[in-house]
Specification:
alpha/beta; 5-stranded mixed beta sheet; 18% strand
């Protein structure tokens, strides 16, 4: 025993000495605004050189024509090159950067490279730049993916590229044409009381932890996730639900604000005995709801995926750029009052029907559309979605602004639709400003955690989960796996194992152990939040 203590003392002394000699941190130099601007200018000059087919300007951006300049090719591409007379081709183009410069200078068709989500990391005279890219020839996307550069600051103060690597995906993806057909979305699956006799509908599939909770967009229901839920269920338990008054859930006498929705969801999960931790997934207005849930019940949330989410500041951003849109929004809101109050016979094809019920969506089977039409004719359904619309830019937005507190470093992924084209009443400059503002707001959400990231999904519209469901599935999968490796998840696991032990063996009573199971699901949720609350970082 004495020898063990001596060895431990010696080891501690050696480690302490080693630590004393090590640097305080890896990066010694702070990034400067002027350097970052200069680095971003390199990306702009690179794009300009391609558009103008200026080989000399492109070459001047590189440290030398012999820099690393390569993309990992697909096996099929390697086989094709070998079959086309290059039997020794191993995937690395021997011409490298020099070949690309020659291609740019001699191209007979328009070429362009577009960059999205540019990230710059700098430490003194070394920098890394990464971004999503699209490479276009003759205005057609020929390749897209992820690209990364390394840059050096030379003695004359200019930044030069000394390596370029990129992924290769060939022709761009097209919008999904898949149809949602699961009959589970045609009827209530599980109606759980949340307030007296008022119930919310929830549909859970799969098993495992953390539980993925799906919240749909404004006025929408669980069926919106019909292409995503089946793909996540093999990984972990996945639950989609209908907010109050929507889908098959009972109406509420409360306004459709984010705070009321979060309160309902927390009650629903507790009363349904769906224990934390949760990975919250929200589309559009649902993104605001899950963000407020994460702010309100932070210890219970392991991560978030936000699918083209609404933002508490989006209305002011849009109205500053386009003042007329504020009046249009108010006019539309006033027109919705007729939808909420009308008792007229709802005739398909009438203006009232089109405005208040809408047309059948090709995303759903005729059977699902028929059920949705019946539900949309119900006054409670119309009142619920109108109430959400009335509050999204006022009460709900203010609730989000008032919600403070750290989210720790939980993994967060924000998915953004591709930039929209201008409408008939918008100038290109106005639309560009709105697109840039939308990205800026989504970037803000990603910065709520040091493990936050934002991705643009191309091509896609607002319903990314239906246009590109695999992109949403990949994001959820990534956050689930990241959360399972986190400190917070391990804390939850320890407490849950302890709970099961107590339930099975009845060894500890709640009065003796603050982390033992309480008598009700709600008490248990409060207890587990308390036990896991000592460290809310992942």
């Amino acid at each position: 025993m004495a020898n063990s203590k001596f060895c431990a003392w010696v080891l501690a002394a050696v480690l302490g000495a080693a630590q004393a000699q090590s640097t305080d941190h890896i990066g010694r130099y702070e990034s400067t605004l002027s350097d970052k601007d200069a680095i971003l200018q390199v990306t702009q000059d690179f794009r300009d050189a391609l558009v103008n087919k200026d080989g000399k300007k492109l070459a001047a951006l590189l440290l030398s024509p012999q820099i690393l300049f390569s993309s990992p090719p697909s096996p099929n591409y390697v086989k094709k090159r070998q079959a086309d007379g290059e039997p020794t081709f191993n995937g690395i183009d021997p011409k490298g950067a020099a070949g690309f410069i020659e291609f740019v200078a001699t191209s007979k068709t328009p070429i362009e490279e577009k960059f999205y989500n540019i990230k710059v990391t700098q430490d003194g005279h070394v920098a890394w730049v990464s971004f999503d890219f699209e490479f276009l020839e003759n205005n057609r996307i020929e390749n897209y993916g992820l690209e990364a550069w390394q840059l050096l600051k030379t003695v004359d103060g200019s930044w030069k590229i000394f390596s370029v690597v990129w992924s290769s995906h060939g022709a761009p993806k097209t919008l999904s044409t898949a149809t949602i057909s699961d009959p589970a979305y045609r009827t209530a699956q599980r109606l759980v009381p949340v307030e007296g006799t008022r119930r919310l509908n929830i549909y859970c599939t799969g098993s495992g932890s953390p539980t993925v909770v799906l919240d749909a967009g404004l006025g929408d229901s669980a069926r919106a996730w019909g292409l995503v839920q089946p793909e996540i269920s093999p990984l972990t338990r996945t639950c989609a639900y209908d907010r109050a008054g929507l889908g098959f859930s009972d109406p509420s006498n409360r306004a459709g604000t984010s705070a009321n929705i979060v309160d309902d969801l927390h009650r629903l999960l507790g009363n349904a005995d769906i224990q934390p931790p949760y990975v919250l997934v929200g589309h559009s207005f649902g993104g605001m709801n899950v963000k407020l849930f994460a702010r309100t019940y932070t210890p219970e949330v392991a991560g978030m995926v936000l699918v083209d989410p609404s933002h508490e500041d989006q209305s002011s951003m849009i109205w500053d750029i386009d003042p007329e849109s504020k009046a249009q929004n108010q006019s539309y809101l006033e027109s919705l009052q007729e939808c909420k109050q009308s008792t007229a016979d709802w005739v398909e094809g009438s203006d009232l029907f089109k405005r208040c019920v809408g047309e059948a969506s090709p995303r759903y089977t005729p059977e699902l559309n028929a059920v949705d039409t019946l539900l949309a004719k119900q006054p409670a359904r119309r009142q619920a979605w109108v109430s959400e619309f009335e509050n999204i830019f006022i009460a709900s937005s203010q609730q989000l602004r008032s919600a403070n507190g750290s989210l720790g470093d939980m993994p967060i992924i924000v998915l953004t639709k591709e930039p929209a084209k201008p409408t008939a009443r918008e100038t290109q400059a106005m639309r560009d400003a709105k697109n840039q503002g939308w990205i800026r707001l989504h970037n803000h959400i990603a910065t709520l955690s040091p493990r936050g990231a934002r991705r643009t999904v191309v091509p896609s519209g607002h319903y990314i989960q239906q246009d590109q469901p695999e992109a949403v599935v990949a994001a959820i999968r990534g956050v689930v796996l990241a959360s399972r490796a986190s400190k917070r998840y391990k804390q939850f696991t320890i407490v849950l194992i302890k709970r099961e032990s107590v339930l099975n063996e009845d060894l500890v009573s709640p009065t003796n152990d603050p982390c033992s199971p309480a008598s009700s699901s709600r008490q248990w949720r409060e207890m587990i939040a308390s036990c896991a609350g000592e460290s809310t970082s992942l």
